[in-house]
Amino acid sequence: MEAYLHGTSPKEQERLALLNSLINDAGLRELRLRGGERIVDFGAGLGQFSAAMAEAGARVVGIERSEEQLGRAARHERLELRRGDAQDPPLRPEEWGSFDVAHARFLLEHVRDPAAVVRQMVRAVRPSGRVVLQDDDHDVLRCHPEPPGFAALWRAYQRTYDRLGCDPYVGRRLVSLLHGAGASPVRCTFLFFGACAGEEKFPALVENMAGLFLGARDAIVGQQLLDSAEFDAAIAGLRGWAERPDSAFWYAIFWAEGVRR
Ligand SMILES: C[S@@+](CC[C@H](N)C(=O)[O-])C[C@H]1O[C@@H](n2cnc3c(N)ncnc32)[C@H](O)[C@@H]1O
Q1: Cα 44 to ligand 1 centroid, rounded to whole Å
Q2: Predicted pLDDT at 1
Q3: Ligand 1 atom closest to 69 (CA)
Q4: 107 — pLDDT class (breaks 50, 70, 90)
């Protein structure tokens, strides 16, 4: 089975939950649900976004591989969580080709064969059903002024994806993945994800970033991408930078949507 870079420790689950609280409203707005849709959410994680879609009136099946994530996942009366692999999703025969929407966020960057997952998503929806992909492309981050040691840390973090056989730049491929899987692309956009000193959400977003690195510390140091002193100095540099009155970072979640032909 593929390794999952971030793992599922309680600390990482806390980070993922906080991240969800910061980005779910924007994701829901972009999704433009009308209510009553049947949705399958691939790689549902802690189920917060699946539950948010259910709260918006959809009936949602969330598919997640990790028992630890499912054990602490959000619950909702219109959300059914199932354990399974996104490449071989546990859907019943009559469910294939029946969903209005198949959605995945921050999943394709963690699988070695994202095309195989998107093909399953297209199979899962009815003709004209929507396939919505949200993912990272780590190349779009800009910080200013640059925190000390940050460039090397960010590069090292991205290399941990390559070494697992995953693509840290999958965001830019989302439309071609839809096309390759037999869906007609209809829309792409960015969901802005960033903040500057003075914004209430800034400390939480910087801590999310620090949490990503800390979760990958063993991989980064173990693979000798940085030594432990360089790693620790870069984390301290990031936290010190966050105290400056003029610090800012810009990032974006890549969003692409297609419909089944
Ligand atoms: C970064 S989390 C994102 C969770 C959720 N989509 C969100 O946006 O909050 C990625 C999740 O995908 C799960 N995952 C990774 N590979 C998977 C696979 N092949 N099948 C199902 N789930 C997988 C991980 O266990 C993890 O919970």
Answers
A1: 6
A2: 66
A3: 27
A4: very high
Peptide bond connecting 89 to the previous residue in cis, omega within 30 degrees of 0: no
Average pLDDT (196-225) is: 95
Which CATH number goes with the domain that contains 91? 3.40.50.150
In a domain, 128, yes or no: yes
Counting the structural domains of the chain, the total is 1
Give 117 Cα–ligand 1 centroid separation in angstroms. Answer: 12
Residues with CB under 6 A from ligand 1: 4, 6, 16, 20, 43-45, 48-49, 63-66, 69, 85-87, 105-107, 110-111
Gap between the Cα atoms of 108 and 62, Å rounded: 15
Is residue 145 reached through a cis peptide bond, with omega within 30 degrees of 0 on the bond before it? yes
Angle between helices 228-241 and 202-215 in degrees, nearest 10: 170
Q: Kindly state whether residue 219 falls inside one of the protein's structural domains.
A: yes
Check: CB of residue 96 under 8 Å from CB of residue 124: yes
Please, which residues have CB within 8 angstroms of residue 93's CB and are 6 or more apart in sequence? Answer: none
Domain residues for the domain of 30 are 10-260
* Tokens (6 digits) for 193: 């994800």
Tokens representing 153? 């840390």
Q: Is residue 3 part of a domain?
A: no
Only one residue has tokens 């979640």, namely: 253
Confirm whether 175 is domain-assigned: yes
Q: Please state whether beta strands 38-42 and 99-105 pair in parallel, antiparallel, or not at all (unpaired).
A: parallel
Cα–Cα distance between 243 and 153 in angstroms, integer?
Answer: 19
Q: What is the pLDDT of residue 206?
A: 95
